[in-house]
Specification:
It contains seven helices and seven strands, in the order H-H-H-E-H-E-H-E-E-H-E-H-E-E. It is an alpha/beta fold. It is globular and about 50 Å long.
């Protein structure tokens, strides 16, 4: 199946529909990710069909859990999940944060080609050193090392209304047990990603009340 047909079919099965322009932007991202990964090993050598299922559709599974209109993607890497989410959420301002120069250069190129520069910002920095002077509505991370590390490094970017979203594979019960009292667990949701058989979960956290 061609990547566009696969994307359209999978989105229809997930109950989500997007404009032709958004589909074009997602497919351009897929092609750029495949091309750059051959040289810079952003996600390994993967074909477009696998990029659609295991990266784009996987990223979009977080969309129902986003809150507010200011979002930070921590350790965005190749722009995942931030770029696919930015394509389908034109009402949200995104900051894509990563400390790796080749990855931030790739993300900069992508947002230029997808015409997202007006509301997507790429920052080259470690999360611990990033202090923008305001809180984010949603702080999200995909494949971060552990829930504890995610919370510890990101909590300074949250206020009482912010949420932290951690995209995980299997349900991270052991990690949940070790979380500090600085956060409370709002939800641990199993998510279904079209054409991906492996388990996927999203952990939703919030800063604990003082």
């Amino acid at each position: 199946m061609l990547p566009r047909q696969m994307l359209e079919s999978s989105l229809n099965r997930s109950g989500q529909s997007y404009t032709p322009r958004q589909l074009d932007q997602l497919l351009t991202f897929v092609r750029l990710l495949e091309k750059w990964s051959k040289t810079f090993n952003l996600i390994g050598k993967q074909n477009q069909e696998r990029i659609v299922s295991h990266h784009v559709l996987d990223s979009l599974s977080a969309m129902p859990y986003l809150r507010g209109n200011r979002m930070l993607d921590v350790g965005s890497g190749a722009g995942l999940p931030g770029i696919p989410l930015a394509v389908v959420r034109p009402d949200v301002h995104f900051v894509l944060l990563d400390s790796n120069g080749k990855k931030t250069r790739f993300m900069q190129q992508v947002i230029v080609e997808l015409c997202l520069s007006d509301r997507v910002e790429v920052i080259k920095s470690r999360i611990e050193e990033y202090h923008p002077g305001h809180a984010f509505d949603t702080v999200i991370s995909r494949a971060f090392a552990s829930l504890g590390d995610f919370v510890k490094s990101s909590l300074h970017l949250c206020d009482q209304h912010s949420i932290l979203l951690a995209m995980k594979g299997r349900r991270p019960d052991s990690e949940l047990k070790t979380l500090s009292t600085d956060v409370k667990v709002i939800e641990v949701a199993a998510v279904s990603v079209p054409d991906v058989k492996a388990e996927r979960h999203i952990v939703c956290l919030q800063k604990a009340s003082d």
